[in-house]
Amino acid sequence: MRLGVCYYPEHWPESMWEDDARQMKALGIEQVRIAEFAWSRIEPTPGEYDWGWLDRSIDVLGAAGLQVVMCTPTATPPKWLIDRHPDILPVGADGRPRAFGSRRHYDFSSPSYFAASQRICTAVAERYGKHPAVAYWQTDNEFGCHHTVVSYSPAAVGRFREWLKARYHTIDVLNRAWGTVFWSMEYRSFDEIDAPVATVTEAHPSHRLDYRRFASDEVARYNRMQVEIIRAHSPGRPVAHNFMQLFTEFDHYKVAADLDVATWDSYPLGALEEQWFAPEVKARWLRSGHPDFASFNHDVYRGMSKLPFWVMEQQPGPVNWAQWNPAPLPGMVRLWSWEAFAHGAGCVSYFRWRQAPFAQEQMHAGLNRPDNRLDVGGNEAAQVAGEIRTVLAANADANAAIRSKVALVYDYEAKWLFEIHPQGADFHYPRFAFEYYSALRALGLDVDIVPVDAPLDGYCLIVVPPLPVLPTDFAARLASSGAQVVLGPRTGSKTQDLQIPANLPPGALGSVLPLRVWRVESMRPNVTEAVRLLNNPASSEADGFARHWRDFVESDAADSLDVRARFADGHPAYVRSGAFHYLASLFDDALTLRLFERIAQEAGVATMPLGDSVRVSRRGALTYVFNYGDATHTLADVADDAFVIGSHAIEPQGVAVYRTR
Amino acid sequence: MRLGVCYYPEHWPESMWEDDARQMKALGIEQVRIAEFAWSRIEPTPGEYDWGWLDRSIDVLGAAGLQVVMCTPTATPPKWLIDRHPDILPVGADGRPRAFGSRRHYDFSSPSYFAASQRICTAVAERYGKHPAVAYWQTDNEFGCHHTVVSYSPAAVGRFREWLKARYHTIDVLNRAWGTVFWSMEYRSFDEIDAPVATVTEAHPSHRLDYRRFASDEVARYNRMQVEIIRAHSPGRPVAHNFMQLFTEFDHYKVAADLDVATWDSYPLGALEEQWFAPEVKARWLRSGHPDFASFNHDVYRGMSKLPFWVMEQQPGPVNWAQWNPAPLPGMVRLWSWEAFAHGAGCVSYFRWRQAPFAQEQMHAGLNRPDNRLDVGGNEAAQVAGEIRTVLAANADANAAIRSKVALVYDYEAKWLFEIHPQGADFHYPRFAFEYYSALRALGLDVDIVPVDAPLDGYCLIVVPPLPVLPTDFAARLASSGAQVVLGPRTGSKTQDLQIPANLPPGALGSVLPLRVWRVESMRPNVTEAVRLLNNPASSEADGFARHWRDFVESDAADSLDVRARFADGHPAYVRSGAFHYLASLFDDALTLRLFERIAQEAGVATMPLGDSVRVSRRGALTYVFNYGDATHTLADVADDAFVIGSHAIEPQGVAVYRTR
Amino acid sequence: MRLGVCYYPEHWPESMWEDDARQMKALGIEQVRIAEFAWSRIEPTPGEYDWGWLDRSIDVLGAAGLQVVMCTPTATPPKWLIDRHPDILPVGADGRPRAFGSRRHYDFSSPSYFAASQRICTAVAERYGKHPAVAYWQTDNEFGCHHTVVSYSPAAVGRFREWLKARYHTIDVLNRAWGTVFWSMEYRSFDEIDAPVATVTEAHPSHRLDYRRFASDEVARYNRMQVEIIRAHSPGRPVAHNFMQLFTEFDHYKVAADLDVATWDSYPLGALEEQWFAPEVKARWLRSGHPDFASFNHDVYRGMSKLPFWVMEQQPGPVNWAQWNPAPLPGMVRLWSWEAFAHGAGCVSYFRWRQAPFAQEQMHAGLNRPDNRLDVGGNEAAQVAGEIRTVLAANADANAAIRSKVALVYDYEAKWLFEIHPQGADFHYPRFAFEYYSALRALGLDVDIVPVDAPLDGYCLIVVPPLPVLPTDFAARLASSGAQVVLGPRTGSKTQDLQIPANLPPGALGSVLPLRVWRVESMRPNVTEAVRLLNNPASSEADGFARHWRDFVESDAADSLDVRARFADGHPAYVRSGAFHYLASLFDDALTLRLFERIAQEAGVATMPLGDSVRVSRRGALTYVFNYGDATHTLADVADDAFVIGSHAIEPQGVAVYRTR
After folding, report:
1. Is the four-CA dihedral B450, B451, B454, B458 of positive or negative sign?
2. Which Pfam families match (chains A, B, C) (predicted)?
3. Residue of chain B nearest C281, judged by CA positions
């Protein structure tokens, strides 16, 4: 548990640097990230490096006792480089290169940019790799931001063809895997294959899915290049990248596999505004963020980080980039910080030290205001710094790793597949995964979010949001885990090649779950279907309702199948066979919570219903309680002397931490 | 009355073909459509045909006693052809060629594609034109699907200039006809004229309308080329094309004039989702389709088919291509089938024999599931096959032609003109034509849908939805028909050149209807205008309301004009002069129905108010009743022994057929 | 006070011209605008002018005693010119040239078009500059219509670089002014700078603002070229341009500075439909227009016109170009005409003499119908002509200039800046300026709308809607004016270079208003914040609510700051210091009105609350009252013999004019 900050010495007169460093230290900051957008200052003219200012700024930070997180500056290639190599620019779906003038204006597949990146990364890593103040590295910045993963450039298409050759070996295998016979889309060679864009109607879904897989792999390859250069020149310093909240355009597990630390950039208010939430939900959590949103991301990135994950950028006040940008309620910056630690974070690093008065993000707050007075967020960070010292002093295992009884399987390809091949226009995978997660959290459960190939032993309850493509051994691993397994609709509905399984969905899960999905329907937003629980005393009332989607389920082994809920028209809505629970639809929040509570009990996992605005997390011997609501929450059953932070009465935006054992 | 199916032998192992053919026959299928997307299998390499598989599949079908509907494969030119002739690709309004990778990626005006189409059509027609199993032909597939009628390619512009020369002869005539003087848009030669696209503000409406007429004519020309090749090589086999539901981007009458059979592809649930209906209407008829939608299309295509029209593709279960895709209620596939026959169909052909597990339409149901079990739709098709035998055995004239007392005039140019020149953003011609049709159907009336140049004698009631451009003799033909004539607003509002008639609307109808529309207004969706019927006892209540549009009507012969309804501000809303009834607005559904009922009575046409969910059709000596609702409908006044199918109590999704005489 | 009309002799047979001119004169028309779209008739072939028809039409008008407003025809370059110089076409944000086929298809920065314009303007001005019938000139037509101010052509980019050089002199100055260091966007020379378009995410806001300033300056330069040519050849004739209602894409003050008369085109119903108003507001004022909309524009253009402003085009009936186009209520054309005169207009000129039956605007009414009968608007124009004679005869100072006690500061850069850099997606500057104006008008106040550099002495109340960039001397001028000053939120929030002021907002106003905006938040449409007035008796009720935006205010001199209202969370919502009133949010209409009423009283300005549908204006010794509502409005306290037009009871759509002294 420690605090960090993002700092841009190039934004400020050199005369301010020493004072800035001293203030950081005084506030309780331990690490400082720098230089991720500084290429034009590092190399103002082609081949002529200006290291002086950067040397001095690192020296100043180091002299103040701060650890530097050094970045490669590749997110912002300078104008002279673009003018020399216009093929660096990514190409949009409209066939036009995207222009210089903001950031991330590069194509992951551009050979020019790959070479230029190798050169600048090597230069930076050589110069600072062994500098005593440099403790960590960050590659680039927010891969994929502003829809930059997928490019339709000639370079990308060329590399896609190579990628296809490596995957399918012969064109006949590809034609069969994709089913190109359908509309005479058969190819005679890999060189006939273009990007799946600008077609008359939707391009072939397998073609599109492979293009997304390819584009994702290009990100991993590009990051790996940087990691290897850094490791060669800066041995022993962990390498990180700062991922984005709920970002899904590339497979983060694959990129994280090459890193030491997975970090993410947490902007709870901006996210609330920009994500799928309904307008009334956005108003409800306007100045606090959704109680499960940051947590969901903490658990996602914890699940892929070798060292404890970090929040690399923590929202310190209003941001500039959402459609509307409210100010956090007093206390929220503190709450968010503690929530990250409660979920296992090693560091919470605020973006940014001081609000710069110019350019695109001039309206984005920092810990300090543009007039160099400490802002609300800065005060709360100072409070957190003090509280960290209290917690660490009192609890030896405050930095313990987290291990939960509940796992939620989260997958990136699932997002792409359902986006490409939705069948119902609002089938938004991250939303459904989040709704399952949110129900678990409202039951007071700690949740590990894991990839499909994660070890599953040791979990009591495994929840699988709609997962179309199953790894070969998935059914076996689920079965041998001993856990109760909840499967969302559409699970096992596709093969690796995006075809319907020959035995119908849930495909390979049929071996452990004796059912077939013989028909599906998607439901428009103003349509729901009543659901009745079968253990319910006879009544004419529905127990809840289904939304978005229905799987129609049949079985050759009806005896071994326990139908626990039915739709109004009699079709099964929820069936159980042994440890496997199949949900044939996406239910309303209350019904989802009710079903999860029952299954958790069957799994032997104790639940603690919390309502919608209080959340609990456990790390080591400490329990953390967070109040997102607008009324005081009172904890019963906690001894007075157990509290490390706070007390029984948790005010709105309040935090309590107490010893559990 | 017979059943058919669409079949793709190229999708399945040859080992399955014989069993498939046997099962089709057993189920009651008589005709099988094949090969419309098979170009890449017929000619896998330029100039090298692979006929073997197609020969064998036709032989297998023929041997099973099935008749083949053979298709030309031009809807899906293969990749090698596109690579050799990139000018085949149509060009979008954004100036970019649309890409290979789905279907219909061709420009109707491309000389390369015209020649390539002639070649492949000749090859297919030569090989199978006299094959004993080949009974019918289909040209291409769904002309215009995915917005492919209009292209902005250089080839299209070149042919447009020729089309203009043929229409206007001299540039001065064109300049006057269009009124190009308005904004100095005058042309000095036809070669100065471009496509009406990408202009600073809206392009000239006459220019745009002519471009749409030209593009429509290009479709007819292209189809005619195929028909002539087929007729030359396959004499005696009727030639069909499968049109789309409510598709209006080309003049279907002109294309149908070259065919023997007009067929259409009926997807009632997909259509409901994708058309203009309000969300609550979409929810109301979610799993049955709108009770008048398929019927409207049956009557449209019956009106242009020389032989009895067909449903070439009948929805058999959920589809994949709407935004949301619900499953039909049990019984709907049967109901839809019978509804087609009741409206005069010669054949109902299901799309498709078996759901293929791959490519764009893998989620589109068939009569059989991907695991080769018979699906719900398959069972219902089998039921229909049995019922057809019953009906045919009992009724000699079950296949009789239909002749109605009521005609509705339906026009394609009207759609283009109002789209180009709406004056009110929601003036959607097909919707208004459908609303008039729906009111007539709710009154229990059979309706012929006819073009503006159809013979009108013999009808008692002729309903004309907003028809801007009138043929020269239209007023005379209406007057001499002896029918009562209902005219929607904006009728006669434009000349052939898209100008306001010199005598003001309704233009040439002024000779039979002594009124002028001296002003109009369009009404935004949250504005209506109350309407009072003048024969109503004095009350402060409105009898209904006007929507979308108002014509302001004046007359030099007020004595001969019977004002039957007025708007709240006193302007006439409905006037009658002799047999002509002019509606100066678009009324709410209830008022439209009330007016139509009164006029039908004046026309001597008996009405039978049915409400919104039961519909009746008559063919030969049989009356067909369909229940789209969710309550049992009871027929009174039908003798017990008159029923051929069903009985007095018609369950939801039920059908009854009884002898009328 | 006089009437005019827009006339297109080229649309009609020459045989109609004399009768048209006679009818105009008879109706009371005094001036006729012609030829603004006639280039293709003036120069049908390159270099060959056809003056004959235009000579004759001007002679006919002059012979009838009408004054001609002669136009340059540059809004519609003919096709042959475009084909010779395709670089004339402006380039859209998508990088594609916009096409010929409507109007305004030219790039203000095109050297070809500048030269061609000089040539045609010189030709027209030489021929008609001294013609006795030609009394006025109009340059071009509606600069900027259809989004034609900003072009992304190479010519525009080239001239932008020159513009930047002239502004910043060295690239280092530009880099610092913009803050390009932020994302390595630093430039090494002006030639590296492109247009701020097609970037990966938002382009740099300072870059974007400068591009808008540049594009605006290009319009002024282009207009100035025409004005200079006209003045050289037609001395003594005032030169006008017809601006558009609430159009903001260029700085109208700068263009008007080169003109003699600022005129505008008034379409109250089309504007209502196309502007920001909520659907229920659009329905409320459907057939009258919003009571403050035309007035706002009158006051905007009066404020920039050297001679009395005109309405160059007055809506005479339904138009064609809004999404929905209702018909004005009877009397509205008269009311709008009088409202213009009441606000100081020298002329109201109707668009157009007769509705042409062809081309894009065939559904746009004129004073006469296409069948050459006088339309409703024509009758009302005739009524106005008669009333003008009455008014002029009875009141020597009816044409007096208007001078108000209240000024509203209105700025064009503010619109661009907030559009580029909104921070809240619905921060629409003209709407907020209009809401302030509307509140003042509902208090019965006459308002001058003035630029930021206007003299402010003599005003009692100065209202400043959100004004981000302050001129250097603005604070001093406000302070020395002696007026009470109301400042909207975000005032002084940016420097000239679009940076946050070093002392925080309100920047330079801090010298007279001891506060700092230390934080802001934008509020989504379904979020408001309660506001309490501090002088209110204690109650739990809010006095109103804040919308869209909140400034968080602090002060080092709290004693000198009178906090007059607070938000529910305690932050100040409205503070006063001396004559300066700072509003920290945008309040609901009722609260805004209540605050303005109180401040007006403090300013010694008498108010007269009028409700939402009656409006009053004063010019010379006359008071004008307009009734936009649907109930009769009764004037008390006016002597019977004071009425020049109308009487105490003003019917809906009615006008009354009475002598005040």
Report:
1. positive
2. Glyco_hydro_42 (PF02449), Glyco_hydro_42M (PF08532)
3. B526
